[in-house]
Amino acid sequence: MILMVAVVILGLMYAFVLDPEKNSDAFFPCTFYSVFSVYCPGCGNTRALHALTHGHVIQAFDYNLLFPFAAFVIAWYYLVALTSLLFRKRVMWIPETIPIWSVIAVGAGVVLFTVLRNIPVWPFTILAP
């Protein structure tokens, strides 16, 4: 458990200290963009994480509209797992099962977001990182 917390803290510190726009060599380039020359749903996540670690929420939305929502969900699940390990029982709310319709809806939303952010016409260019 200590290793899990240490890895997350080190990753957040790495994203905090290094600016992806100034130190692009310190981060992996987007493979999807390198191969297909279109933005994937994750393009801009590194810059958005850097902005979030500095408290710039609006700028994080500007880099990737989906990332702050995804980061919130991932952080919530992480905290649930961490508190469950610490207290040996679930102390935070998390659904027992995830309905299939919500998985399909999220998947369709991500696909739609990916298609729309690659249309080179305003207002869709706002979605590009």
Secondary-structure element series: HHHHHH
Helix content: 55-70%
| Number of helices in the DSSP assignment | 6
- The N- and C-terminal alpha carbons lie at a distance of 35 Å
What percentage of the residues does DSSP assign to strands (E)? under 5%
Major sheet details: none
Tell how many strands the DSSP assignment holds.
Answer: 0
Concise overview:
Helices cover 60% and strands 0% of the residues. The chain is mainly α and 129 residues long. α3 packs antiparallel against α4 (57-63).
Features:
129 residues; mainly alpha; globular
Molecular structure report:
The mean pLDDT is 88. The protein has helices spanning 2-17, 31-36, 45-53, 57-63, 67-87, 100-117. By secondary structure, the chain is mostly helical. Helix 1 (2-17) crosses helix 3 (45-53) and helix 3 (45-53) runs antiparallel to helix 4 (57-63). Helix content is 60%, strand content 0%. It is globular, with a radius of gyration of 17 Å. It has six helices and no strands.
SSE order and pairing:
Layout: H1 2-17, H2 31-36, H3 45-53, H4 57-63, H5 67-87, H6 100-117
Helix pairs in contact: 1-3, 3-4
